Inverse folding.
């Protein structure tokens, strides 16, 4: 058995060091700190990594989602289908743009939106669907696009967690009019804060470039303001961190996949009443978060989080949030009952996973869960 008292095990620890420092120093020395050559370099590199036609870097995934709504020119007052089990940003961008989110249930196998839920929005003046790739696993892309198409709705992919995730062998971001990524430190690849919009549509790309920067275009070498855009730009300082991160990101994914396999085996061997995350046959999971579902033998999830922290020195967290359980969404319409989302919110738990987490620390985490279980 691993020793009871090891040092504190955090949920995640970004892989940053001297490579990032050197890149940032270059930017500071250059005297050009705002959006400039480093952002351009980061964007071209991201296109390569994602297999995307165009990438527009932004200050966050949230602003990338807003930019997508602007660039697709969604009509105000229309409805947008979003999963109930997600980070609030997915739906907040809809509200801020004058739309109405419609909350849809998720599938407990993958935590992704149920494709059939989309059809329940028929007749509700739906302009878009914003499905979320949950925790590094893809949602059911073909089915969701097909059903959105039946409603005449656009699809904006919330791919905040899905950098290098694949669906049927295809990289997320290599197709689609609007696919939005996050580079927050909780994600696989970080630029401290940051995000991007990937698109295979030339027109969406041109709009996004203008809307990212005050609705500005250049005409005959001069600035012209042709739309009412805001400032969604990334800085060269942040892009420099991202560029250094790209050199490591494949190793980060490989390591997380290996750690997931170890957790899966430890959990299977322990016979514990909890379900490890599933990787569907059509998916390549990056395990941006390793999220388990606690069975009945475990106390309430929040109690598990508290005891793991206090007694065992292990940081864990809820998978993500049920929007309908938050004050900001109390009066938001639901497309149907939300049993999948309710259960996911009540019983999901994210286990620690980061580059330097050792196999014996993983065994300690699973052993601590065993002590917590009543079975
Ligand atoms: C992290 C996250 C966001 C927000 O990303 P930011 O870059 O912090 O704006 C949005 N949606 C999902 C699903 C996320 O996990």
């Amino acid at each position: 058995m691993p020793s009871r008292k090891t040092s504190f095990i955090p949920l995640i620890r970004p892989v940053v060091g001297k490579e990032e420092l050197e890149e940032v120093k270059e930017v500071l020395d250059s005297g050009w700190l705002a959006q400039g050559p480093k952002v351009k370099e980061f964007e071209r590199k991201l296109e390569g990594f994602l297999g995307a036609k165009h990438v527009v870097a932004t200050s966050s995934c949230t602003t990338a989602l807003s930019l997508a709504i602007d660039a697709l020119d969604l009509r105000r007052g229309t409805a947008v289908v979003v999963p109930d089990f997600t980070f609030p940003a997915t739906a907040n961008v809809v509200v801020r743009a004058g739309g109405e989110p419609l909350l849809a249930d998720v599938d407990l196998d993958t935590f992704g939106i149920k494709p059939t839920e989309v059809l329940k929005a028929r007749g509700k003046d739906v302009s878009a669907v914003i499905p979320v790739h949950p925790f590094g696993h893809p949602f059911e892309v073909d089915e969701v696009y097909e059903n959105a198409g039946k409603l005449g709705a656009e699809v904006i992919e919330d791919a905040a967690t899905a950098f290098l995730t694949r669906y049927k062998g295809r990289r997320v971001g290599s197709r689609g009019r609007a696919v939005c990524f996050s580079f927050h430190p909780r994600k696989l690849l970080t630029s401290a804060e940051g995000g991007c919009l990937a698109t295979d549509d030339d027109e969406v790309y041109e709009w996004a470039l203008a809307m990212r920067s005050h609705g500005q275009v250049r005409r005959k070498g001069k600035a012209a303001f042709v739309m009412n855009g805001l400032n969604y730009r990334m800085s060269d300082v942040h892009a420099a961190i991202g560029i250094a991160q790209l050199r490591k990101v494949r190793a980060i994914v490989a390591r997380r996949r290996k750690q997931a396999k170890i957790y899966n085996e430890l959990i299977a061997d322990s016979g514990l009443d909890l379900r490890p995350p599933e990787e569907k046959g059509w998916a390549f999971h990056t395990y941006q978060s390793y999220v388990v579902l606690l069975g009945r033998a475990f106390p309430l999830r929040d109690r598990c989080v508290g005891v793991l922290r206090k007694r065992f020195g292990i940081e864990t967290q809820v998978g993500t949030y049920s929007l309908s359980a938050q004050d900001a969404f109390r009066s938001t319409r639901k497309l149907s009952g939300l049993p999948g989302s309710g259960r996911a919110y009540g019983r999901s738990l994210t286990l620690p996973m980061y580059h330097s987490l050792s196999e014996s620390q993983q065994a300690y985490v699973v052993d601590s869960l065993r002590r917590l279980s009543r079975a």
In short: The chain has a mean pLDDT of 96. The radius of gyration is 21 Å. The chain is about 35% helix and 15% strand. The domain at 249-373 is CATH 3.90.1150.10 (Aspartate Aminotransferase, domain 1).
